[in-house]
Structure formats: structure tokens, C-alpha cells
């Protein structure tokens, strides 16, 4: 599937020429000189022209609006890819109205029910803009809700997988590791990994009320080791100060099976919420991508219509087409289109040294015919 397409229009102005005859000439030239270039008719309906002043005013807005609509289309596509990746599913081909994206573009049919051709062009463009803007706003809200749950899970995972100095210790400590009585209490000490011998030889001397041989190795990571130590409750504060002076950190910890179970249930609920929201957001994105891409193609049809009239004049008489030339064939296809344009002054549309200036379509390339590029990925 091609991902980069040209939408072009050629004037039908030669004596006796018709859109069908220009189409036949285009097909013949492409098949003879650039046979590897896919070529399709782009069916633009007879839209309501209005006044030239209104078309000129609209043309300025079309360029900015195209950037916006195209941008939303790509945002939704990227969101779909992220959600599919997060779910561990293989990315599938996106569809628009039930057909593949490239097929929808190359077989485009105007939706009269959605955009009546007798409506003013400004109204059609305004409807497309407002529909796409609403979808973008909805996506921001939905994505924010989903990302909030992901952030909560990430924070919990960091607490459970970070270093012993900061991580949650509840899943490392067992009930039998803790001694709690009227006078005795068990503390958890975080000892630098390479200072464990120092800890074992000195913890009993940090205070006279430490229970001898009470320190027990619980766990260690790349940086630290986790030890328990039992002592009289009345000297806890003094022990913490003396331990800190020797480079040992005593973590505040209270063993609570209820709290541990509550955290486990919270984690499970967040995981369920995340998957439910991911699935819901993905389905919404599939539907919204179809809607936005369809709106974008209708917008392109309006753009071709307006720019063709401003370029070739009234009454509207032009052939519009979609091409997907390989990079190596682009120059040849351009020359074919220019020749069929039949503009004896076409040399004046070329910028010096192949550096273009902005034309009606706002493109960086300038040609004697209407042309703009769309990237569907």
C-alpha cells in the first residue's frame, strides 16, 4: 500500500476536450512512460461556486484547515498504534466506512447525505472543521483518563521495583520477620550492599537495648540489602540517629496484612480499569479515525474544486485524479502532468533552481496545475 499520494487537477480547456478525453490521455501517458505509478480518478462533485471573492477568502483558510484535519488524523493513528502495542496485539489495517484507507481514497465518493453539494462551500468546510475539532477534544479527554490510570500503575510499579531505599517493602516482609510486643519492636534497615559486614558487626553496639543476634537478612538488590533488627521500643529514635551516622537507613514500616491486601486489590482494579479503558479507547479511535479520514477526503475534494476554479477560471472544467508515483518516477510524472496541462506559460510556474514558493495550495512546490500531497501514514 502506498502511503504518499498526489491529488491533482488538470484543466479541460482545449477545443473539443472533455474530462473523459483528458483522462484517457493521462492514462495512456502514465502507462507508456511511468507504468509503475498507480492512477485513479478523484471524483469531485459539482459544488456550489458562490462568488470569486468568497473562493479567494476560503482558499486562505483551506491551507490552515488542511494542516489541522490532517494532523488530527495522524494523532488518532498514532494513538491506535500505541494502544495496540500496549495490548500486545499486532497492528491491523485501518478502515474507513468498512474499506481499507487507501481504497477509500482511490475510490472516493462524495457523501451527499452528510455534505449536501448545494450547501455553501464555507458551510461545508465549517462543518468539517467543527466535527474534527470535537473529535480531537474528545480524544484529549479520553486519552487523559486512560493515561491517568497508566500513571497510577507506573507509580505503583516504581514503588515495587525501585531500589530498597524507596520501594514498597510490604511484599518482601513476612509476618514471622516482625516482632511486636509491649516493649519490643522490629525495625527494617537498608544497608549498602558492600557494607553488610559492617552492619552485622556493629548494629548491636548502636544501642545497649538492641536484642543480640536479632538482625536477619531479608532481601537485597543491586545497591542495598534489607535487614531486620529487634530492640526495645523506647530507644527507637536514638537507634535511628546512630544508624544514620554510620550510613544505614532505617525505613518507617508497619506490617499490616489488611493494608497489604488493600494495595493488592487496588493494583488488580487498576489493571482491570486500564485494560477496559484501553479497549474502549481503541474502539473509539477506530471509529473516530474513520470519521476524520472521511472528513479529510471531503475536505480535499473541496480544496481541489476551489483551487481549480481559482487556477483555471469559470465555469468549472477540470479533471481531478489521484496518483502514487514511486520516488524515482516523480520527475517523469510531473512532466507528463505539465504537458497535459497545455499551459504555454508553464515555465513561469517553475521556481528558480527548483525552489518553490507558496501557491494557492500552500505547498512548497509550484506547478501549472493544481497539486498537493497527502500522507496517509
Automatic annotation (TrEMBL):
GO terms for cellular component: vacuolar proton-transporting V-type ATPase, V1 domain. It comes from the Eukaryota. GO terms for molecular function: proton-transporting ATPase activity, rotational mechanism. SUPFAM superfamilies: Vacuolar ATP synthase subunit C. InterPro entries: ATPase_V1-cplx_csu, Vac_ATP_synth_c_sf. Gene3D superfamilies: 3.30.70.100, subunit c (vma5p) of the yeast v-atpase, domain 2 (1.20.1460.10), Vacuolar atp synthase subunit c, domain 1 (3.30.70.1180). The keyword NAD does not apply. Pfam families: V-ATPase_C. PANTHER family: V-TYPE PROTON ATPASE SUBUNIT C. Subunit of the V1 complex of vacuolar(H+)-ATPase (V-ATPase), a multisubunit enzyme composed of a peripheral complex (V1) that hydrolyzes ATP and a membrane integral complex (V0) that translocates protons. V-ATPase is responsible for acidifying and maintaining the pH of intracellular compartments and in some cell types, is targeted to the plasma membrane, where it is responsible for acidifying the extracellular environment. Subunit C is necessary for the assembly of the catalytic sector of the enzyme and is likely to have a specific function in its catalytic activity. Subunit of the peripheral V1 complex of vacuolar ATPase. Subunit C is necessary for the assembly of the catalytic sector of the enzyme and is likely to have a specific function in its catalytic activity. V-ATPase is responsible for acidifying a variety of intracellular compartments in eukaryotic cells. This is V-type proton ATPase subunit C. It comes from Digitaria exilis.
